[in-house]
Amino acid sequence: MAFSTFIFVLLLAIPGAYAQELYTFSESIDILTRHNAELRSAEAGVEIARNQLNIAYGNFLPEISVGTNYLQKQVNDTNSTGYGAEIVVTENIFNGFRDLSTLDDAKAKLEIAEATLRNVKAKLSYDLKSSFAGLIYAHENIKLAESIHKRRSDNNSLVQLRFESGRENKGSVMLSAAYLQEAAIDVKRAQLTLDTAKTNYLRVLGLAAGKDVDISGTMPEVVEPGVTPQFLELVQTVPDRVIAVSQVKTAEAVLKSTYAGYYPTLGVKGKIGRNGDTWFPDDNDYWELEASLGWSLFNGGKTFFASKSSFADKMVAENNLRNMDLSLATALKTAYAEFVIAIENYKVSQAFVEAQNVRAEIGRSKYNNGLSTFDDWDIIENDLISRQKNLIEKRRDRVNAEASWERSQGRGVIP
C-alpha cells in the first residue's frame, strides 16, 4: 500500500504525467501524414506502380548473364573432366509490340496510383477538417448547453417567484421546471458528443482510440468564393476523371498487347566462352551468334477471343469516362452551391441570434414587470435558444461545406 502511494505521488510530481495532449490544426496535419494508414497505403501504391514502370522499361534492354560449368564423364573406362565459362547476351528485337504495350500499361497505372493518392489526400483533408470542426462544435455545444441550463435555471426561479406572489399559474411553473430538466439532459448529451468527436478525430489522425487528446486553437478562416469557377475546366483535373482517362489508356494497352499474337517475334542471342580441362580454362575460345524468328500460326483461337474481350473492356472504359464527365460536372456544381449557401446561412444565423438576444432582453424585462404573459415570453426564450444552437451548427456546416467543395476538386490541406 505504501509503495502504491509512493508511485502515485511520484507520478503527480512528474510534469506532464497523465497530461492531455493538445494539437493545433497544423500539428494535426503533420500527425495525420505520419500515422494515417490509408494515406501510407496509397503512397505505397504509387511506389509499387513506379517500380512496375521501371520493370517495363527493362524489357527494352538486353539481358546479360555469366555462367561456369564442370563436367565429368566416363567412356569405356576412361574418365575425363572439363571446365567451361561463358557470357550470354540476349536481346528481344521485336515481339509484336507487346513490350511497348506493357510500358504504356505501366505508365497508365502509375497515373492511376498518383490520382488515387490525390483522392485519398482530398478525402483525408475533408475528414480532418470535419473532425476538427466537429471537436470545436462539441466544445461550443457544451458551453452553450451549460449557458442554456443556467438561463433555464434563472427563468425557473423567476417563474417560481412570480407564482409564489400570485402572479403566475402552476402550469407555467411546471413547464419551466421541465425546460430546466431538458437543459440538464442536453449538458450530458453534449459531454458525450465530445467524447465521440474525440474518437473520430483520433481515427482520422491514425492514433489509438484510447489516447487522451484534444485540440488547441482554431481552424483557418473559411475563404468565401469569389468568381464562379469554370466547372468544365475543373472537371479535367479531378482525380476521378484522371483515373477514368488512365483506365482507357490501360484498356488500349491491353488490347494492343493481345494483337501481338498476330505478329512474328524476332530475337538474337550471343555468347562467348572458353572450355578446357583446367580451372580457369584458358584455351578453346568459342563464340556463338543466334537469331530466331517465330510466328504463331494457330493457337486455338486464344488470340482472337482475347482481342475481342480486350476491345469490349476498352469500350467499357470509354463509356465510363463519358459518364464520369457528366457526373463530375454535376457534383462540382452541387458542392460549390452548397458551399455558397452554407456561408450565407451562417451569416443569416448570426443576424437571427443578434436580433433574438435583443428581443430576449426586452422580453425578460417586460415579463418581469408584468407587461408580458408567460406564453409570449416563452416563445421568445425558446426561439433564442433554438437560434443559438443553430448558429454553432451553421458554423460547423460552413467548414464542412468548404471541405466538401475542396474534396470534389481533389484538393485539400494534406501536402
Automatic annotation (TrEMBL):
This is FusA/NodT family protein. Gene3D superfamilies: Outer membrane efflux proteins (OEP). It holds the Pfam family OEP. One of its GO terms (cellular component) is cell outer membrane. It comes from Bdellovibrio bacteriovorus. The lineage of its organism: Bacteria, Pseudomonadati, Bdellovibrionota, Bdellovibrionia, Bdellovibrionales. Belongs to the outer membrane factor (OMF) (TC 1.B.17) family. It comes from the Bacteria. Transmembrane segments: none annotated. The keyword Protease does not apply. It is found in: Cell outer membrane. One of its GO terms (molecular function) is efflux transmembrane transporter activity. Keywords: Cell outer membrane, Membrane, Transmembrane, Transmembrane beta strand, Transport.
